[in-house]
Amino acid sequence: MTRLLLIFTLLLTPFFAAAEEEIVLGLSQDKVAITAQFDGSDILIFGAVKREVAIPENELDVIIAIEGPTGPMVVRRKEKKFGIWINGAALEVDKAPAFYAVASSAPLADILRRIENERYQITVDKAIQSVSATVQFGNTQAFTEALMRIQANNGSYQLLEEAVEVDQQTLFRSSISLPSNLTEGDYNARIFLVRNGHVVADLETVIDVRKVGLERFLYNLAQEQAPIYGLLSILMAIAAGWGASALFRLIRDG
Amino acid sequence: MYIYLPIAEVSVNIFLLFGLGGIVGVLSGIFGVGGGFLITPLLFFVGIPPAVAVATSANQIVASSVSGLFAHLKRKTVDLRMGSVLLAGGLVGSAFGIMLFNYLKALGQVDLLVQLCYVIFLGVIGGLMFIESLRAIRRARKAGGVLRKRSQHNWVHGLPFKVRFRASGLYISVIPVLLVGACVGVLSAVMGVGGGFIMVPAMIYILGMPTKVVVGTSLFQIIFVAGFNTLLHAITNKTVDLPLALFLLIGGVVGAQFGSSIGVKLKAETLRILLALLVLSVCGKIALDLLLEPSELYTISRPNAAGGSQ
């Protein structure tokens, strides 16, 4: 999935009046095309810190968060009933991302204060909302933890501490790999500059993940022209079955 | 080499799909069954969401049945009238099966339904077949053993609405025929199978059809029921994955040709015992999944999305 190195600069409108440092960002690609051969993709995120003042004393850290399309998600717990394990209690999470990756230049606990995490909603647990379910269930923690655990195990939620390299307090770079079971949609990338546990600058950009070509065509057809797609599937099956028997008869007879 | 499946939304190795299709094709060629009961669980196993696996195998079954039917049409071993009556029942059953499938999917119990159907039907059929073929082997060992003639008249022959089925040499009521068709229709919608492994014994033992027309007739009926299921799954669930079906069936048709040449070298009783063991082991594997405590008690799924639970 090598693409032309596409660098675009985005200037941050000053978030704080007193923002002294700004992020200048580059992405190896701002579009991910899901083709038939798609097998995951690495996105290189790099940039520089632009500043008008001298480099401050304390250490600069960088956190990058990429969030895939969000939507409701159902978490079910298996329970033993009548001697077999079947789906029992279920919790509908209002909003959970299909993909979430956080990369940072040092362990998050060391560089980011909790209050700042609340404010900027950086870690994955902040991206999961289960408000309505909490009302119904009381304690939903076991379910949301299970959601995060399952998603972490299949590579959909990633916590990559010390995966961002910061050079001379000015340049930073990180590579985040998107798994092959990617859902299409807008992937929001947020970059935070952190000093002293506080976010001093942030920047947001969108990575567009789309099915293209045949994948796009078949998916759209299946969604929008379901009867035609169904008939097409059957026709293909009949043609393939007939073709196979005809072909093998030829081989056997010839 | 990987391919991203647009509906299942996962990327899978192409050769794995060819391989799966091929293995199932070889087995179906050896034993003369569609192999749907094998391919659906195997697809679960490689990480295809269950709803996509069930719908896509229905499509793949259309292809393998079409390919088999041509041979039978040539040999004139298809009872078209019987097939049409079975089909009428099958379509009703299949529509009902899809409704059941979608209702349980909304409840989050579709996996359980599919698994239970597998355990029960594979267990019963596999068990019966195993016992039957053991008996047949024992009978064959006794020198000059007399083959017991199946009773030609049972309760089925007392029912009204009798119709003559010439190719099968039967004059029976359409009620049991419609019922058999409907049951297979429900199962085939829910389990993503053609239902041959249920239909064939039912035709022989309940309807009393002669063995030579059984396979061709069931293939004829399966094509339409599986096609109908494909269409219903495509419209209501949007879970038919065309590329997935295509790769499976390429592997499948090639495998089936090898399988049938292996099949002719084996003895009929040995074949039946092996098939019974195969059916029972698939059944046992699924039963264990239900009985043993899973390592991950939780599953996640997106409501109303193609991907069932992961």
From TrEMBL, chain A:
Position of the signal peptide: 1-19
InterPro entries hit by this protein: CHP02186-rel_TM
UniProtKB keywords: Membrane, Signal, Transmembrane, Transmembrane helix
Protein's name in the database: Transmembrane protein (Alph_Pro_TM)
Transmembrane segments: 228-251
Superkingdom in the source lineage: Bacteria
UniProtKB/TrEMBL annotation, chain B:
Transmembrane segments: 12-39, 51-73, 85-106, 112-131, 174-207, 213-232, 244-264
Record keywords, A-Z: Cell membrane, Membrane, Transmembrane, Transmembrane helix
Cellular localisation: Cell membrane; Membrane
Membrane-related topology note: Multi-pass membrane protein
Keyword Transmembrane included in the entry's annotation: yes
Main location: membrane
Protein family according to the UniProt entry: Belongs to the 4-toluene sulfonate uptake permease (TSUP) (TC 2.A.102) family.
Protein's name in the database: Probable membrane transporter protein
